[in-house]
Amino acid sequence: MQAYGLPLRYYVDNLRVFRFVQKRDSFWRNHVLTTDDVDPQWRQVMRTLGVDVIYALSPQAKGKVERTFRWMQDRIVRQSALDHLSTIDEVRAVLRYEVDRYNNHQIHATTGQIPSLRFDQARTSGCTLFRPLALPKPYREAKDVFCLHETRVVNGYRRISLFNHDIEVPNVPLREEVDVHIIPNTDTDTMEIRIWWAGKVAHSVVYPLRALPNS
Asked: Are 47 and 39 within 8 A, CB to CB?
């Protein structure tokens, strides 16, 4: 999204990363939450950015995507067999090569154009539904949008509990609900926790990842 902008909508399947789907009640189990009563982390980010989501109810419903994946899988398997590759790292190199060739070098059978060039032409001519990334208010940094989101209630000791750790939250009234933004950083092996209340950052703290083993 930072490189190409925000799409009008995403067309995805019902994988649990994209959607909370609850199966029907049974004799042994009664469900409290139903489908779409909870937004997964990915869906929360889409909702924050104003990107619509359409869910395909079967693989056949999004055939263009499935055909591309099937073609890619066939190419990778055959090339790996021809080159006698046997490790994941070796096959990853084939995957990167095939993705680059498909996007940047191969002429598409349907459009008669190279996909990346066709996309660039659409953006240049304004014939696209992508729009520049603009952070919604009150956010000023991308990490407050592209992060893990949780909510907590400030207890009587002016603290919240997260990953079995008590975090002090100054300047927030007792019993108020706060938004917790969790920002892992694998480069520094740390996790930044930013606590939002009333449209501003009320508190920010950084922990080493090893200090939060349950996260």
From this structure: yes
Residues 204/193, Cβ–Cβ less than 8 Å? yes
With beta carbons less than 8 A apart as the criterion, state whether 43 and 85 touch.
no
Phi, psi torsion values for 40, nearest 5 degrees: -60, 165
Bridge-based pairing state of the strands 200-208 and 148-153: unpaired
User: Do residues 125 and 118 make contact, with C-beta atoms less than 8 angstroms apart?
Assistant: no
Residues 189 and 209 sit within 8 Å (Cβ to Cβ): yes
- Using one digit for the tens of pLDDT, what is the confidence trace for 170-185? 889 999 999 999 999 9
Q: What is the pTM of this model?
A: 0.79
Alpha carbon 152 to its chain's center: 22
Residue 155: phi, psi to the nearest 5?
-85, -175
Tokens encoding 150: 């949780």
Token reading at 73: 């899988």
Give the SS3 label for residue 135. Answer: coil
Nearest one of 15, 115, 18 to 64, comparing CA atoms: 115
User: What's the token pair of residue 71?
Assistant: 């073609």
**Residue range 109-156, pLDDT digits in tens:** 888 999 999 999 998 898 999 999 999 999 999 999 999 999 999 999
